[in-house]
Amino acid sequence: MLLTDMLTPTLRLGVTGLSGAGKTVFITALIRNLVSGGRLPFFAPEAEGRIERAYLEPQPDDAVPRFDYEAHLETLGCDPPQWPESTRRLSQVRITIEYRSASALRRAFGVSRLNLDVVDYPGEWLLDLPLVEQSYQAWSAIAVAQAREARRQKHAKAWLDFLDGIDPFAPKDEQAALKGASLFAAYLKGARAGDPGLHTTGPGRFLMPGDLEGSPLLTFCPLPLDPKRSLPRGSLAAMMARRFESYKAHVVRPFFRDHFSRLDRQIVLVDVLGPLNQGGQALADLQGALDAVLRVFRSGASTWLAALLGRRIDKLLFAATKADHIHSSSHDRLEAILRLVTDRAMGRASAAGATVGVEALAALRATREAEAKVGDELLPCIVGVPMPGERVGAKVFNGKEEAAIFPGDLPQNPEDALHSGARGAQIHFVRFRPPRVLPPGPDGEAAALPHIRLDRALDFLLGDWLA
Ligand SMILES: Nc1nc2c(ncn2[C@@H]2O[C@H](COP(=O)(O)OP(=O)(O)OP(=O)(O)O)[C@@H](O)[C@H]2O)c(=O)[nH]1
Ligand SMILES: [Mg+2]
Question: For the residues of 3-71, what is the DSSP string, one character each?
């Protein structure tokens, strides 16, 4: 190793977000914009022409696969363009940025370097964060109550029927554990597939097992228990509790210790628009799930994570993703809803002394803006190619033709978003095809990828490290 490698500072950026929030697209767009010099007028080091070059380093950690940037770009570059698939395993990437410092003194020592380390993982695994601080009994009580809620009950019926037919205090029984775990996993997956806006208590690996497919670590499920009653030795409940603890020890703690405990900066990506499409209940659900996850990141000695944290996250950016689904005149309202949804997490981070930012962004902009005249009124529209099968009224799109869409107005008062009925807010978003990602031209220059405020996000997260 060269001395310069050892002296290069490393910034660990946490990209946090539930499944579908836009992590993989964000990381791909971030790399591409840094490596191929995107249009980033609000990213000061780039705008000031101080970035010499940025490139992907060979993987620093032999045990973790490299983020498959090239494959994601290739997917986006297909004809017709496709979005990357939902992430199934953890991966990591190191981008080295060579830049000239803004300070004359540091410039005198030549080009400076920064390593930027980013991890991508299936968003479902985040649902495991809150488990670490819960006992098996407490988790069971929450999970069983949640499964009985109206929106989830229809998916959970087979598992709830199974629970009604067993005695948690009967002697342990492997077949019962296997059956319970498989019905519980089927419920979580069914709920997710039937209603993508529905968040459950996890465990995340039941939804996205990764390399734990079929592992005994996943043969447990919640049971209807009195949280205050202790579990008799040798009972089914005691066996389940032991496996829950093993899952925490062997799966959850290492995941967070290795990838979340040493973050310097964090961007929390939130898809606010998806739940908005489904109404206030879905938004409240997102609020609850995010709060449970982000709670673990609070500082102070009382959390297990804080105890592990050598470094402290000093800057957090909360970002509402996919802002290209709405006209820019609504971006302020989108930010206001994001503030409401992440209110408590933001409060905790600020109180702990971190700098907190809020932004509506699109890492990869799939639409452009237009105005459509309807009667005497000019409506702010967005124009893009809706994904095949998307509909507006009776119209079903074929994935090939462009359409101008008025998705509706976001509520002026963000509180109203939480209280709207299903599909009641007169808002309807459709998914668009990604923009065409052109291969580099004969001169090797790649065309810049369109985005909305990705440059501001980069400036907030990296700007001062590149000063
Ligand atoms: N229009 C638009 N859509 C986006 C953007 N970012 C993400 N999306 C959409 O959101 C979907 C999910 O994005 P991903 O980046 O795969 O989400 P993720 O957080 O990695 O999800 P998991 O891998 O399941 O955890 C994509 O397939 C796109 O449909 C964006 O900037 N603009
Ligand atoms: Mg992903």
Answer: HHHHHS-EEEEEEE--TTSSHHHHHHHHHHHHHTT---TTSHHHHTT-EEEEEEPPPS-TTSPBP-HHH
Give the residue among 34, 115, 18, 107 at the shortest CA–CA distance from 69: 34
Indicate which ligand has the atom closest to the C-alpha of 25.
Answer: 1
Residues flanking ion ligand 2, Cβ below 5 Å = 23-24, 87
Hey, which of 25, 78, 431 would you mutate to test ligand 1's pocket, going by the most ligand atoms within 8 Å of its Cβ? 25
Nearest ligand 1 atom to alpha carbon 364: 31
Exposure class string for 398-422: b at 16+ Cβ within 10 A, else e: eeeeebebbbbbbbeebeebbebee
pTM of the model: 0.94
Instruction: Give the residue whose CA is nearest to atom 12 of ligand 1.
Output: 20
Ligand 1, atom 15, lies closest to the CA of 22
DSSP 384-435: E-BPTT-EETTEE--SSS-EEE---PPPSSHHHHHTPPTTTTS-----BPPP
* Ligand 1 contact, 23 CB (< 6 A): yes
Kindly give the distance from the C-alpha atom of residue 363 to the centroid of ligand 1, in angstroms, as a whole number.
Answer: 9
Per residue of the chain (467 residues), what is the pLDDT tens digit? 555 566 899 999 999 999 999 999 999 999 999 999 889 999 999 999 999 999 999 887 888 999 999 999 999 999 999 999 999 999 999 999 999 999 999 889 899 999 999 999 999 999 998 898 899 999 999 999 999 998 899 999 999 999 999 999 999 999 999 999 999 999 999 998 888 778 777 899 999 998 898 888 999 999 999 878 899 999 999 999 999 999 999 999 999 888 887 789 999 999 999 999 888 888 998 999 999 888 887 543 345 555 555 568 889 999 999 999 999 999 999 999 999 999 999 999 998 889 999 999 999 999 999 998 888 888 899 999 999 999 998 999 999 999 999 998 899 999 999 887 654 457 889 999 999 887 767 776 778 899 999 999 999 999 999 99
Closest ligand (CA of 269): 1
Residue 253 CA to ligand 2 center (angstroms) comes to 21
Asked whether 19 lines ligand 1 (CB < 6 A), one says yes
| Six-digit token string for 80 | 């017709």
With a 6 Å cutoff on the Cβ, whether 322 touches ligand 1 is yes
From the CA of 429, the nearest ligand is 1
CA–CA dist 333, 365 (Å, integer) = 19
| Closest ligand to residue 274's CA | 1
What's the CA gap between 41 and 98, in Å, rounded? 18
Say if ligand 1 is within 6 A of residue 20 CB.
yes
Q: What separation in Å is there between the alpha carbon of 18 and the centre of ligand 2? A: 9
